């Protein structure tokens, strides 16, 4: 099998620039040659999705509610839509569950259970997955004895779930606490276990089975908690299954548990699980990932006890779990839209463990081959199996085909990858350390840039941005992955990662930032504490503190400076404006329309953003957005449930249809222009506002009459990101429905005493009261309790509305159904009102993070900071005078200063003496070439083949090869020709009235000048 694994990897990785070619030639341990590589190749290509390592606990539903979907990435696992969340004893440190896509069936005919329906609608499969003779086949070969390698996989896996004997008896206080929680959970579940002679339709009290897949999920999870208790060592003399007013119950090796587990699994199998031919109800995720994850852990933990009592149980369950893989016809299908990224990895890990239980080498080979595909960098120019989910070369991570998801699905994938490495350790299937460089690349260039002082940023969390949790609680799996990876490294690389891990922990400013008991693997707990207590390991960030990350493949930007980090969320016809699903993130309409988040160094970021912010902020006033003034309804308000249902329409709208994804759950925009260019540590970004694609589809008659759509305002938007300032420009602001339009300058949640100051164009300070102010030059905000000190400068003067108010809300208004009150949050909101039916209005303002009031006033009074060169419907351009850096967004053909372009382009240019450095990017991802024209005669000074230079008279044409670059910045270095005297237009001259050097354009140049 060793040669087969190597060949599979060679096929997978031959075209991937991420892998070093030497990796393929590194021999694996000797294996047999029986691997069914042909089977793998038939489905090869689509990168899989990460798996979660521990079983999440799902809140049980009551008999009154029915469930159609599970909530994705909750730390306690998939949550049933519409179900209340009764108080239950939490499972020990569950992992963040990935976010499932709603249900689909093998026939392609989704059949969800409508909320309130007493009976589920079940779609039968086309072909029965289970053969009629399967029971006889099982009995012919009940349970093979395990090979040494298969047993090692099971031992490795069990070690992750409950630790080994050394870890359990290590005396480690965190592990002891985890075991205490495990024992309490096991005791609680055993007490709730219903004896067979008293059982009707529930295995546990209050968890009725038959119509709610969340209750079935809970039942398997509770059996798993009992199995964990059975294998978690405690020596306190107590028993299990009785009430304890004090002390810790002890379910370790209590014979009640294996008897209950085997009998309970058989009862569920016979009554609610074996009939896979009937189809499944509720969420596909529960049946293909959720249930199998819990079941597989139970079978691995209790294998010996199960075989003693019923040797057919394990193969029967494995067969039915295969049958429920409807989206993969009994196995992972790399062509399935469900078997991608994190989801694929979950399934693959389950199947690896099942292969070990069954001593099935072909199954093991296929599962390992499948999960190895997640290491492939997604190449947008060579999409395999239609899959766009995974890690991109620029550090982006996409899930659900078009949602920026580093913060939840991405973390789950990272976690599952490390689980795979640990499970396969010391076996013939182990890749050893050959994948380390890839995972390190993910950590340093993909994950770490969006984790600021231990806080996962809002821009990469999909619908989980509204979840009742914080950016700190998103990171336990990230921390654990770094701990586990560090053990496979040596020398400088190991010390670098351990130092970075230490920095991530130590930089957290919240008292609730990170709880080490949330680490699942006991060995990782021990290693984590060793790293933190090792004085020879410094606490050092492995990434630069001053840097700009352009994640153009997911339309996001992160601008890092010593005192702050600025995060920007864009969208386009490639990347969704937001994600909503399962009643989660109910008011997301403008989250991808240029919304920004400004995180201050040293702050508790829970006090700046997080669920409390999302639950209380005005959803029409996200910072940086330009929106029409109107009231919108949530999906549940529009349709009485969490999705739009119309299965008879040509697009077949159901809870899990492709049309639901496209037009409800994660709609893209209609705009093609969204991009950014990076020059050193500086950047310019731009986008045109677009409508949701649903609006365009409705206008063209594609969507049903009762499908409600909303139209956005029209605008061009740009951001110019330097050191001390971030410049915001807006132009071409109008509304085709003649509504009032407003731009939110900022909307900050602050704490404690707040000081607000503002001044007019003459620098005279004005008395602040809530309301409107005309011709404002600058505003200053000082809220020292949460480190918020900043200024706002308006270069052209603006009429603004400034307010300070206390807002309250409830999490259930934006996420799920559980009420979590969020009271008395202070907000300072600055708004520019463009009026009703604005006539191509514009705005300009400069964010000044960390500046005192005096520094803000001095900045506004200075003439040597920034200059707006153009701000109209064709071009937005700004010059940072001290740096001599110009950023330009060419929305249409035109010229600014000595630079002209006739294509959509985003560019940043720095001039030093007689040298030019240019960074240019294609914001449409669709152009093969872009030509930038520069006055004067310039010569190329580098060997970059991605551009060429041609001098035409007194104009130099620089043609950039943007074909297939997918928004990547292309750098060009030039010098003024010796035959050309330097003639540079006056700095800050704005739009030029004479454009004699501008080449013939394909369309009219609009040159209206600055506002």
TrEMBL record:
Comp. bias (Low complexity): 51-75, 118-127
CC annotations in GO: extracellular region
Domain annotation Polysaccharide lyase family 8 C-terminal: ranges: 867-930
GO biological process: carbohydrate metabolic process
Catalytic site positions: 400, 409, 463
Ranges for domain Polysaccharide lyase family 8 central: 548-851
Domain called Polysaccharide lyase 8 N-terminal alpha-helical: residue spans: 169-502
Region forming the signal peptide: 1-20
One Gene Ontology term of the molecular function aspect: carbohydrate binding
Regions crossing the membrane: none
Compositional bias annotation for Pro residues: 97-117
Gene3D superfamilies in the cross-refs: 2.70.98.10, Chondroitin AC/alginate lyase, Polysaccharide lyase family 8-like, C-terminal
Keyword Lyase carried by entry: yes
Pfam family, one: Lyase_8_N
Spans annotated as Disordered: 46-127, 976-1011
Keywords on record: Lyase, Signal
Family affiliation: Belongs to the polysaccharide lyase 8 family.
Protein name stated in the entry: Hyaluronate lyase
């Amino acid at each position: 099998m060793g040669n087969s694994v190597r060949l599979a990897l060679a096929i997978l990785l031959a075209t991937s620039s991420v892998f070093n070619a030497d990796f393929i030639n590194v021999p694996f341990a000797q294996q047999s040659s029986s691997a069914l590589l042909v089977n793998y190749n038939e489905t090869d290509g689509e990168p899989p999705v990460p798996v979660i390592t521990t079983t999440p606990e799902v809140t049980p539903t009551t008999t009154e509610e029915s469930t159609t979907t599970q909530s994705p990435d909750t730390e306690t696992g998939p949550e049933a839509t519409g179900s209340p969340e009764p108080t239950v004893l939490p499972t020990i440190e569950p992992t963040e569950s990935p976010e499932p896509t709603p249900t689909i069936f093998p026939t392609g005919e989704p059949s969800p259970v409508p909320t309130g329906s007493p009976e589920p609608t079940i779609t039968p499969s086309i072909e029965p997955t289970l053969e009629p003779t399967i029971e006889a086949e099982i009995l012919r070969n009940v349970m093979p004895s395990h090979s040494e390698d298969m047993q090692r996989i099971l031992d490795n896996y069990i070690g992750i779930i409950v630790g080994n004997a050394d870890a359990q008896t290590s005396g480690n206080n965190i592990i002891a606490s985890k075991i205490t929680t495990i024992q309490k959970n096991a005791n609680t579940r055993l007490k709730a276990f219903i004896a067979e002679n008293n059982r009707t339709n529930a295995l546990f009290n209050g968890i009725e089975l038959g119509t709610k897949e969340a209750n079935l999920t809970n039942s398997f999870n509770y059996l798993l908690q009992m199995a964990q208790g059975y294998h978690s060592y405690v020596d306190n003399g107590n028993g299990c299954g009785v009430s304890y007013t004090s002390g810790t119950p002890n379910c370790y090796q209590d014979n009640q548990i294996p008897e209950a587990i085997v009998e309970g699994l058989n009862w569920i199998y016979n009554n609610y699980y074996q009939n896979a031919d009937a189809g499944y109800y509720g969420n596909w995720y529960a049946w293909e990932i959720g249930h199998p994850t819990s079941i597989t852990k139970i079978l691995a933990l209790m294998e010996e006890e199960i075989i003693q009592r019923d040797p057919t149980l394990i193969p029967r369950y494995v067969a039915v779990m295969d049958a429920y893989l409807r989206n993969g016809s009994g196995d992972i299908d790399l062509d399935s839209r469900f078997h991608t990224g994190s989801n694929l990895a979950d399934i693959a890990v389950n199947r690896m463990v099942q292969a070990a239980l069954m001593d099935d080498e072909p199954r093991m080979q296929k599962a390992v081959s499948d999960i190895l595909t997640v290491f492939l960098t997604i190449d947008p120019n060579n999409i395999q199996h239609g899959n766009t989910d995974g890690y991109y070369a620029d550090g982006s991570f996409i899930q659900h085909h078009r949602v920026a998801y580093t913060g939840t699905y991405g973390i789950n994938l990272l976690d599952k990858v490390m689980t795979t490495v640990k499970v396969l350790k010391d076996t013939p299937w182990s890749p050893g350390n050959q994948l380390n460089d890839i995972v390190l690349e993910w950590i340093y260039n993909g994950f770490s840039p969006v984790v600021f002082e231990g806080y996962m940023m809002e821009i990469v969390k999909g619908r989980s941005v509204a979840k009742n949790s914080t950016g700190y609680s998103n990171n336990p799996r990230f921390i654990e992955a770094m701990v586990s990876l560090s053990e496979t490294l040596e020398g400088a690389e190991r010390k670098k990662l351990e130092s970075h891990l230490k920095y991530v922990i130590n930089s957290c400013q919240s008292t609730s930032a990170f709880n080490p008991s949330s680490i699942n693997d006991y060995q990782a707990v021990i290693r984590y504490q060793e790293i933190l207590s090792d004085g020879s390991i410094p606490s050092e960030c492995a990434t630069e503190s001053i840097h700009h990350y352009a994640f153009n493949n997911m339309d996001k930007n992160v601008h890092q400076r010593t005192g702050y980090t600025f995060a920007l969320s864009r969208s386009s016809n490639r990347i969704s404006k937001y994600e909503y699903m399962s009643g989660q993130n109910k008011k997301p309409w403008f989250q991808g329309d240029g919304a920004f988040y400004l995180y201050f160094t040293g702050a508790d970021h829970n006090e700046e953003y997080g669920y409390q912010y999302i639950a209380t902020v005005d959803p029409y006033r996200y910072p940086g957005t330009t929106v029409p003034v109107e009231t919108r309804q949530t999906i549940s308000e529009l349709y009485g449930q969490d999705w739009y249902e119309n299965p008879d329409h040509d697009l077949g709208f159901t809870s899990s249809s492709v049309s639901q994804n496209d037009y409800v759950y994660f709609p893209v925009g209609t705009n093609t222009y969204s991009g950014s260019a990076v020059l050193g540590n500086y950047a310019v970004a731009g986008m045109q506002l677009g409508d949701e694609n649903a609006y365009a589809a409705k206008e063209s008659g594609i969507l049903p009459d009762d499908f409600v759509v909303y139209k956005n305002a029209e605008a061009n938007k740009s951001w110019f990101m330097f050191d001390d300032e971030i410049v915001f420009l807006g132009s071409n602001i109008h509304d085709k429905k003649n509504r009032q339009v407003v731009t939110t300058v900022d909307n900050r949640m602050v704490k404690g005493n707040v000081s607000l100051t503002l001044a007019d164009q003459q620098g005279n300070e004005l008395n602040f009261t809530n309301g409107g102010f005309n011709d404002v030059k600058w505003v200053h905000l000082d809220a020292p309790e949460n480190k918020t000190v900043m200024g706002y400068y308006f270069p052209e003067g603006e009429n603004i509305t400034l307010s300070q108010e206390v807002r309250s809300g409830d999490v259930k208004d934006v996420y799920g159904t559980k009420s979590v009150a969020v009271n008395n949050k202070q907000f300072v909101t600055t708004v520019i009102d463009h009026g009703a039916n604005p006539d191509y209005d514009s705005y300009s303002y400069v964010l000044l993070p960390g500046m005192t009031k005096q520094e803000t006033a001095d900045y506004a009074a200075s003439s040597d900071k920034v200059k707006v060169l153009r701000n109209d419907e064709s071009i937005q351009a700004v010059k940072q005078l001290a740096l001599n850096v110009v950023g330009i967004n060419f929305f249409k053909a035109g010229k600014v200063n000595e630079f002209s372009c006739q294509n959509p382009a985003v560019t940043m240019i720095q001039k030093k003496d007689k040298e030019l450095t240019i960074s240019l990017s294609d914001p449409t991802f669709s152009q093969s070439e872009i030509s930038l024209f520069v006055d004067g005669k310039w010569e190329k000074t580098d060997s970059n083949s991605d551009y060429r230079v041609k001098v035409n008279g007194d104009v130099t044409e620089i043609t950039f090869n943007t074909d297939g670059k997918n928004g990547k910045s292309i750098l060009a270095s030039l010098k003024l020709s010796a035959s050309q005297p330097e003639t540079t237009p006056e700095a800050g001259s704005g739009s030029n009235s004479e454009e004699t050097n501008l080449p013939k354009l394909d369309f009219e140049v609009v040159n209206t000048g600055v506002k």
